[in-house]
Amino acid sequence: MSVQGISPKVVRGGFVLSYPGGPRRVVVFQYNPDTLTRTMKPQVPPDEPGDRLEALRLKGPPQESYRFEAEFDAADQLDRSEVDRHGLHPVLAALEACFSPSYRQLDRENTRAGAGVLEIEPAEGPLTVLVLGRNRVVPVRITEFSVTEEAFDIELNPIRAKVSVGARALTVDDVGFTHPAGLLFMHNLQKRQDLAALHFTGGGTEAAALDQLAKG
Questions:
Q1: What is the pLDDT of residues 131-144, one digit of tens each?
Q2: Is residue 85 part of a domain?
Q3: Residues 6+ away with beta carbon under 8 Å from 185
């Protein structure tokens, strides 16, 4: 049987938001990012002159950050009633919920403040998970977010937009080992080490030569 003309199904990236004691919300990227910039900063002990024992030590997992752009176009989603009526406002509002307290949380804080109750802890936002394929499912905190709206309908609803996102991966240093984000981090760390093992076991003449050079 010929398979010519059959396109493989593309896995879409996006965010999954889990609210404390509440529902989950999924925000799917309409188009996957063309580029993704990852930055990793190793956690090392502070430099102490003469302390050679610290040269190879690691204080904890590296600090990892992501930057990418997601594009949205209402023209390709007019079969969805909310897009037909409101343009891209719904998806942009869903993305902004990643880092904004909810109306209910702020209203509750205001009511308690009016009753003389002092809030010690700030409102807790949703656990935000960046999903970019099965090998990259990362709990993150949004650190930067900007939207460029490029076209509008007759009611000034945005119908084409680019969203620039900066995010920092959460680790057990941030949330501990028992928090869902910590558990997800540990799962990803194990998966990353499994992927690294696939490469290291590849061997080959070039790898053998490098190993020999390292041995002196």
A1: 999 999 999 999 99
A2: yes
A3: 61, 138, 139, 169, 170, 171, 172, 175
